[in-house]
Amino acid sequence: MKKRFIGMIVLICMIMTGCVDQHQKPQGQSGTQTRIIATSVAISQITDLLGLDLVGICDTKSFKLPKRYESVTRVGMPMGPDMEIMRSLKPTQVLSPTSLQSFLEEQYKEAKLPYRFLNMSSVSSMYDSIDEVAKEYGKEEEAKKLRDEYENLLKDYQEKRKDKEKPKVLVLMGLPGSYVIATNNSYVGNMVELAGGINIFKDDVEEFLPINTEELVKMQPDIILRTSHTMSEEIMDEFDEEFKTNDIWKHFDAVKNNRVYNLDNKYFGMSATMAYKEGLKILDEIFYEK
Questions:
Q1: List of domains in the chain
Q2: How far apart are CA 233 and CA 267, in angstroms?
């Protein structure tokens, strides 16, 4: 229980920044060479699609970075980029996700780095962030093409499924030693709704909420989805142990009906990525049992 509580506190610290883009504008950027650092895989996907070069990019052990950045200087992992390396690159702007703002903002200020935090908490927020970056760097045409593709894809997807029954879905986000509920404001919760499901936990502000299994039983979701922020295999093992040893889960219809699914955090992590297209296909197969 103590480990779970600590895990929840860490996660809450990560997401308390909310959905507002707070950033320090780059100083003296006009007339100087653009030197951008992307500290997350999702953001590097955005800069790649917009045709922007980078001078620095995050390290990653789990995800593939865009090919165009293979020779770009690595600045460390998303949760702990190396400030000295970033300073040495003399960036005109550092781009990071709002989910890590509470960890990184003070460090950026102390290092005197120009930064912008991008909201990647949902697919629509990701496209809003694309528009923001595109406007700043004169890539509006590329951004418009991306948005048009997104809106057409979503319209077609939802039109084909408008008459299908919407399953009630519970989404669990795993952390080492703990797990929380992903609301409609989280990326995974947002994906559930885009795919035609009903996320049984809605919140006007929070992306994640602490879990209360006794209350969950009363809500009886049709489907339970389990994903993770990091350490996917270890987290899924912890989920399996939890569902085997905690008798409360035996009272869920979703468990009785074998409708508990593990999701790959490459498609269902903390932040929206362009992998959402594949994520929709995965959820479509789960929701409608193709």
A1: 21-157 (3.40.50.1980), 165-288 (3.40.50.1980)
A2: 15
The C-alpha atoms of residue 172 and residue 167 are separated, in whole angstroms, by 16
Q: Which residues pair with 35 in a beta bridge?
A: none
Provide the token pair at 264: 């790959």
Q: Extract the tokens encoding 87.
A: 């300073």
For residues 95 and 40, what is the distance between their CA atoms, to the nearest angstrom?
8
User: What dihedral do alpha carbons 105, 110, 112, 116 form, nearest 10°?
Assistant: 0
**pTM of the model as a whole:** 0.82
Q: What is the pLDDT of residues 8-48, one digit of tens each?
A: 544 444 444 433 344 444 433 444 589 999 999 999 999 99
Q: Do 49 and 142 contact (CB within 8 A), yes or no?
A: yes
Structure tokens at 282: 């995965």
**Position 167, amino acid:** P
